[in-house]
């Protein structure tokens, strides 16, 4: 079973399922625990199991394969399999559940520990992190859960480095997310990491979700504005839109501030509060994402992609790309290029604009 590289957050993630053109679906088990949160349970089934169209083979399971009552009452979840499913998969996802402070059943605990020991990727949404913590899988690692439960997670499991100010944390083999919508962000992050930026963007579009919210973004926002959204207020949205449209030019933070008619200090504060990083760090990540998508969907040479994404010379682009993804542009293209579907399309670059 494949071992996963340890990475801190989404902006340093290396694709974990790099393969050639003979791509087989990634097997995923969604484990329903007592009083499972229905929305958390449905997120991976919908995003990975349905919308990605064959990239994942997703099935649900429970202890003994028995129906599990959903939180709030009124209905139960009927799983596909018992815990033996965990022996066959590449990824285990544990949705949130309201009985998370109670001890896990012995067979569930043993199955989680065994899967982790085999090198299976372990993923939690919301309070599913309590199950990973109880199994000792989060010991010594940064992790998160719903902000209402972070204090309890830290108190019950002091060996876990709990962070309430992020949407999700990627440690390579082990990933945790905050509650509800953050589970969508984490599943989209899995698609990007496993199958590339273009697949991630297509999945986000089908989900009607933001293509990318960074794992380091704060879980909750102190000040909401009448325009934009909670995670992307109007002034931040304007700055992001302008920066992306002009990423092929050299851009400074002062340029972004001037173009969006806000002071540089305010711009920095708003980005730190709503995105978790500075405007230029955010832009640098968008440039790499743009380069990934062009590598996946065009046959353009590296020098042209470097110019299109604002990463300078071909040599500079190669250095930045390798540092960010642990792959050279050529290696990334070989792994993710969808030639028969997109690669022969003309390259509509903005070089020289």
From TrEMBL:
<dbReference type="InterPro" id="IPR029062">
    <property type="entry name" value="Class_I_gatase-like"/>
</dbReference>
<dbReference type="Pfam" id="PF01965">
    <property type="entry name" value="DJ-1_PfpI"/>
</dbReference>
<dbReference type="InterPro" id="IPR052158">
    <property type="entry name" value="INH-QAR"/>
</dbReference>
<dbReference type="InterPro" id="IPR018062">
    <property type="entry name" value="HTH_AraC-typ_CS"/>
</dbReference>
<dbReference type="InterPro" id="IPR018060">
    <property type="entry name" value="HTH_AraC"/>
</dbReference>
<keyword id="KW-0805">Transcription regulation</keyword>
<dbReference type="GO" id="GO:0043565">
    <property type="term" value="F:sequence-specific DNA binding"/>
</dbReference>
<dbReference type="Pfam" id="PF12833">
    <property type="entry name" value="HTH_18"/>
</dbReference>
<protein>
    <recommendedName>
        <fullName>HTH araC/xylS-type domain-containing protein</fullName>
    </recommendedName>
</protein>
<keyword id="KW-0804">Transcription</keyword>
<dbReference type="InterPro" id="IPR009057">
    <property type="entry name" value="Homeodomain-like_sf"/>
</dbReference>
<feature type="domain" description="HTH araC/xylS-type">
    <location>
        <begin position="237"/>
        <end position="335"/>
    </location>
</feature>
<dbReference type="InterPro" id="IPR002818">
    <property type="entry name" value="DJ-1/PfpI"/>
</dbReference>
<keyword id="KW-0238">DNA-binding</keyword>
<dbReference type="GO" id="GO:0003700">
    <property type="term" value="F:DNA-binding transcription factor activity"/>
</dbReference>
């Amino acid at each position: 079973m494949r071992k996963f590289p340890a990475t801190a957050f989404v902006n340093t993630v290396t694709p974990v399922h790099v393969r050639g053109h003979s791509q087989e679906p990634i097997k995923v088990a969604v484990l329903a625990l007592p009083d499972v949160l229905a929305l958390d349970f449905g997120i991976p089934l919908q995003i990975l199991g349905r919308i990605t169209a064959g990239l994942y083979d997703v099935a649900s399971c429970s202890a003994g394969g028995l129906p599990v009552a959903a939180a709030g009452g009124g209905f139960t979840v009927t799983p596909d399999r018992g815990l033996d499913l965990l022996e066959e998969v590449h990824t285990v996802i544990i949705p949130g559940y309201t009985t998370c402070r109670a001890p896990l059943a012995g067979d569930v605990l043993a199955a989680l520990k065994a899967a982790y020991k085999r090198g299976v990727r372990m993923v939690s949404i919301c309070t599913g992190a309590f199950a990973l913590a109880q199994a000792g899988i989060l010991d010594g690692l940064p992790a998160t859960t719903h902000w209402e439960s972070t204090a309890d997670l830290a108190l019950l499991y002091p060996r876990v480095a709990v962070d309430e100010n992020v949407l999700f944390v990627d440690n390579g083999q082990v990933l945790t997310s905050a509650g509800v919508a953050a589970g969508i962000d984490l599943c989209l992050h899995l698609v990007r990491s496993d199958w590339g930026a273009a697949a991630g963007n297509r999945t986000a579009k089908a989900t009607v979700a933001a293509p990318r919210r960074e794992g380091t973004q704060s879980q909750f926002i102190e000040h909401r504005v009448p325009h934009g959204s909670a995670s992307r207020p109007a002034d931040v949205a304007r700055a992001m839109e302008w920066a992306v449209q002009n990423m092929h030019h050299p851009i400074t933070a002062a340029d972004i501030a001037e173009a969006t008619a806000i002071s540089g200090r305010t711009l920095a504060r708003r980005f730190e509060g709503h995105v978790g990083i500075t405007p230029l760090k955010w832009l640098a990540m968008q440039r790499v994402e743009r380069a990934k998508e062009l590598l996946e969907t065009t046959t353009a040479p590296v020098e042209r992609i470097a110019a299109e994404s604002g990463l300078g010379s071909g040599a500079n682009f190669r250095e930045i790309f390798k540092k960010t993804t642990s792959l050279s542009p050529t290696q990334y293209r070989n792994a993710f290029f969808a030639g028969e579907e997109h690669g022969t399309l003309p390259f509509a670059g903005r070089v020289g604009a």
